[in-house]
Amino acid sequence: MNESSHNMNFRQRQDQDTSMGHESSTSSEVLEFQSAEEMLRHDAAQIEVPESLSERIADSVRDTTPTPWWKRIFRSGSA
After folding, report:
1. Measured between alpha carbons, how far is 39 from 30 in angstroms, rounded to an integer?
2. What pTM was estimated for this model as a whole?
3. Phi and psi for 58 in degrees, rounded to 5?
4. What percentage of the chain carries pLDDT values higher than 70?
5. What sections of 1-79 are H helices per DSSP?
């Protein structure tokens, strides 16, 4: 590839990046949140979780119930 075609391709990419940046900045709404939790709640309300993923997460959480601290202490001493 010669130098002039390389420069032309680079300019085209810059123009595309610039035009994409303008589109996204004009169509996006600026939101300000008081806390990270509020931001996460807003984000969760905007996203629909697929049913299969929701079931897998529920199964994982159900299987990982934490052992109470007193059972961990007494179990380690009796072995």
Report:
1. 12
2. 0.34
3. -60, -40
4. 61
5. 3-27, 36-46, 51-63, 69-78
